[in-house]
Design brief:
mainly alpha, two-stranded antiparallel ribbon, about 220 residues, about 5% strand
Length: about 220
């Protein structure tokens, strides 16, 4: 196994440790006995795992260690860390918890992308997965939202009164809303790209009973 792949595997193994530390700290908060070392451990593990993503990619390119195993493991590690952070921090009793719609949106988008890739591979035989700037921005926005919750960066709270109603929002609500927006838009982009690939292969056209395409 290459050095790059060993780093990726280590990153995958760090995910359950991060989840454990985050949940234990949340239980401490719930029981009015928070243990700061557990929060610091969760933060350190998450940051280390995030940083190692760039490291294994650099090593694979620099020392020509690209492999088919790495192509499979790297996205598993990336998505696993993101989903672990988002889902865990949605119910772990930290000072701020992600709203329910956020993990639902992230999981739904990833499920649609994976399902679409499988369908394309079945119908077309080949799939061109082209990372978009929206997808990369969505990933950065999700990572930023997770980091802000872990670091408890919530510098302000605001209360507004639109149409006689009272609405309260935090700084973290803004980071989550931006991450949700880019996640949704990037998902639409991937769907449109998949449809374009289907159209280009001729599978998007209607066919007559004889099997001939109807233009």
């Amino acid at each position: 196994m290459t050095t790059a792949n060993k780093i990726t595997v280590t990153r995958i193994l760090m995910i359950p440790v991060f989840i454990m530390m985050a949940i234990y700290y949340g239980r401490g908060v719930r029981d009015h006995d928070p243990q700061p070392w557990q929060r610091y451990s969760a933060i350190a593990i998450f940051l280390l795992a995030s940083a190692s993503d760039g490291l294994d990619g650099y090593i694979a390119r620099r020392y020509n260690q690209k492999s088919q195993l790495g192509v499979i493991l790297d996205p598993i590690a990336d998505k696993g860390l993101l989903l672990a952070g988002i889902i865990t921090l949605s119910f772990s009793n930290w000072g701020y918890e992600f709203p329910v719609w956020f993990p639902v949106l992230v999981i739904a988008r990833d499920a649609v992308v994976v399902s679409g890739t499988v369908i394309l591979h079945y119908l077309v035989g080949t799939v061109r997965v082209r990372p978009s700037w929206l997808g990369k921005t969505a990933t950065v926005a999700q990572m930023t939202a997770i980091a802000c919750v872990l670091l408890q960066l919530n510098p302000f709270h605001r209360t507004i009164h639109p149409a006689g109603m009272t609405l309260r929002y935090d700084f973290l609500d803004i980071t989550v809303a931006l991450a949700g927006l880019f996640t949704f838009v990037s998902g639409i982009g991937y769907v449109m790209d998949g449809i374009a690939q289907l159209q280009a292969s001729g599978h998007g056209e209607a066919k007559s009973k004889s099997g001939a395409r109807v233009s």
